[in-house]
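Hi R.,

Quick one: here's the RNA-directed DNA polymerase sequence you asked about.
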Amino acid sequence: MVVNISDSESTVTAPDDRPLISNSSTDTAPTLRAYSSDRQEDVNPGGTKHTSHEDPILEIPISDDPLNIFRRQIVIKITSTSTNTKPTVSKPFEGYSKVSVTINEANLEESVISLIKKYADPKIRTGILVQPLKHMYDVVPIVQNTFKSAAMKLVLVKRQIENISDYLNQQDTIRKYHEGKTNHRGINETYQSLSQRYFWPKMKVDIAKFINLCETCNCAKYDRKPIRQQFKIVPPPSKPFEIIHMDVLSIDHDKYLTLIDAFSKYAQAYRLNDCTAPNIIKSLLSFISHHGSPLSLTTDRGTEFTNQVFAEFLKLHKINHHLVAPHTPNENGMIERFHSTLLEHLRILKLVHKNEPTSNLIPYAILAYNSSIHSLTKCRPFDIITGHYDPRDPTDLNLSERLMQQYMQNHKSNMQTIYNIIHDSSFAEREAITLRHNSHREPETDYAPDQTVYINNPMTSRRKVAPRYLADKVVSNQPIHIYTSKKKLPVSKSRLKRLPKSNNLLQTPPDTDAGPSNGSRHKT
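And here's the predicted structure, written out as C-alpha cells:
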C-alpha cells in the first residue's frame, strides 16, 4: 500500500481484496510521525510527495485544523465513570452536522466502531475530536485496524473553536478586531487571527467584503496596484500652429512662458515679470505676432490661464482654449517633455559658461532645440515652419531629391506635401507608441452614478500623514474622466483607487470536503 500526500489531501492505495471493515485487530499502536505546519489558505503546488513502505496499513491523518471546518463532525468524550450516552446530533451551520457522544472506556472499541459506521459518510470528509486529548491515541489503533482511512475520509483533530452563526455577531466580531488594537490591518492578517478562535462558513469572504468597504482603509492606505488606463490615440494636427501647448516654467527664481507647436515641435520661451494675466497676454501676443493665431491653445488649470481677462483675450482672437484635468500632467505632456529638453540644454550651457546668468542662456537653449532634428517628425522645427532646407546638411530629412527640386519650383505645393508626410508619419508613430504602451495597460473602467470612488489626494506630496485618497460620489461617467459630487472640475480616471475584484482579492477557503490544507496535517 502506498500513501501519497499531494497538495490537497492524503490518499491511501490498498490491495483490492482489502475490505472497508477489517475483522483483524492488533494491540500494537502506531508510531507517531508528524510534520509541523501552520493552517494555510494557499496550497504549495510543488508539495513534496511521501511514500510509506515500512508500515503501510497503519495510516490515518491528524490535522492541526479545528473540528469546525469539517462538514461532518464527531466529538467523542471518553470517561471511566459514566455510562455511554445517546449521540446528540446538531447542525451548527447549513450543510454541517455535529455528533456528540460520551463513551465509557470499558467498551471503547465497540462503541467507536459502531459510532463511525453509523455517522461517518465515505463521501464527506469527517473530522473526529477525542476528549480528553490523551485518549486520542487509544482511538487511533481502533480506527486504523478497522477502517481504511482514505476510503472513509476520516481525519483526527486536536481542537475545536467557537462557532458564530448570527450574521450581526459575525460582522461585530470582524469590526472589533479590525477597528480595535490592530488599527485596520488587512484581509489576510485579520483572517489568520480570527480563524484561530472563531468559525463560520466563508469567513474570509466576509472579512474581505468588510475591509474592502472600510472607508478608513480606502482613504488611508496605498493602492498597491494603481490603475494604468490605456491611452487614447489623439490625431495630430495637419499643419503648423494649429494647436499650441503652453505652460509656465520656473528656472532660478525666474518664470518663463513656454509654448510649443504640436505639429512642428517648434518652441519658444518668454521671460515673465510675474504671472498676472497682462504679462501672460503680452508674451502670448508676441508669439502670435510672429506666427499667427492658433486654432487651439492647451494649458493646465492654473489661475494665470483661467481668469476672465485671459478668457476675453482668447475669445477676441477666436482661439479655442482646452484645459487639461487637474493633476494629470501627461495630458499636457508635450510641453512637459519640452521643459525636460530645455533644462538639459541649459545644464550643458552652464557647464561651459559658468558665470553667465541663466536668463542670458535661454535664447541659446531655444536655438539649439529648434535647430535639432526631432525624433518624432525627423525634421528640424525651424525647417518645418520656414520651409527652407539646407541641401548641404548631411542629416537631411530623407526626402527624395525630386521632392527637393520641386520645392524650389513650387514652394506651396512642396510644403503641403511635407506637411502630409509629417502628419502621416506622426500619426503612425503615435499609433505605434500608443499600442506598445497599451499592451501593459488595462481598458478604461466605467463608473455608475452614485457609485463611491476614492480620488488620489494631491496634498500627500506635502503632508505625509494626509489621507492618501478622498471619498466621493460619481455624478457622471465620461471618456477618460468622471464628474463627482464634491469636485467642480472633471476627475481623471487614472487618479481613482482601484476597485476590489473578488477573483483577485478574495481568497475563498478550500472546500472542507477535500480535507484540511496540505500544510496542516500530521500522519500516524
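The chain is about 30% helix and 20% strand.

Cheers,
M.
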